[in-house]
Amino acid sequence: MTTDPHVTISPFTADDLAAHARELGALLRACVHDGASIGFVLPFTDDDGEAFWRDTVLPAMREGTRALLVARAGGRIVGTVQLDYGTMPNQRHRAEVRKLMVHPDARRRGLARALMADIERRARHLGRSLLTLDTRTGDGAEHLYASLGYATAGIIPGYAHDPTEDRLDATTIMYKTV
Ligand SMILES: CC(C)(COP(=O)(O)OP(=O)(O)OC[C@H]1O[C@@H](n2cnc3c(N)ncnc32)[C@H](O)[C@@H]1OP(=O)(O)O)[C@@H](O)C(=O)NCCC(=O)NCCS
Q1: E-strand stretches of 107-167
Q2: Residue 173 — pLDDT band, cuts 50, 70, 90?
């Protein structure tokens, strides 16, 4: 739930994703160009964004190891988060939260907090009680996760290349029991 009555959050099926891959790609591009450390570096185009959704997320959804939630405001996609539950047999109680993102012009209105609450509900429904994630050390997302009760397991220096600048950033590994 968000406090914004114009925002709806809903689960996407694989077919929903296929139908909206272009728009989701544009959201990803906007976040990467804004400096988000979510797996990509510049140059990064709408085509690159669409390819990520079609080539990486869609197959995982079709094989039943990925859940996708999408936030819309006024009919436009403004945020998303994924739950990757394609874990090994000895970790069926665990899932990874992936690629939480909110469009730069829709931030600080509680969308990410609402997406996380919904993905945690979805995880519990799937019997996943341990959630893990990683985020660039010092990012707003780290504050968000800490405020939601995620604990820090540790920090790995020099983990990922910055999307726009020539430097390596540390990542913080976090977890929560839900
Ligand atoms: C991180 C991100 C998802 C937050 O989205 P959002 O919708 O703006 O977050 P919310 O409005 O739900 O924020 C909830 C709380 O998180 C914390 N928070 C969110 N963004 C923050 C920031 N930039 N700096 C500090 N705290 C922040 C605050 O405690 C905030 O509460 P407040 O607004 O009442 O102070 C968004 O900034 C984003 O998409 N960033 C780029 C992608 C990214 O880094 N994703 C994380 C990948 S691991």
Answers
A1: 130-136, 151-161
A2: very high
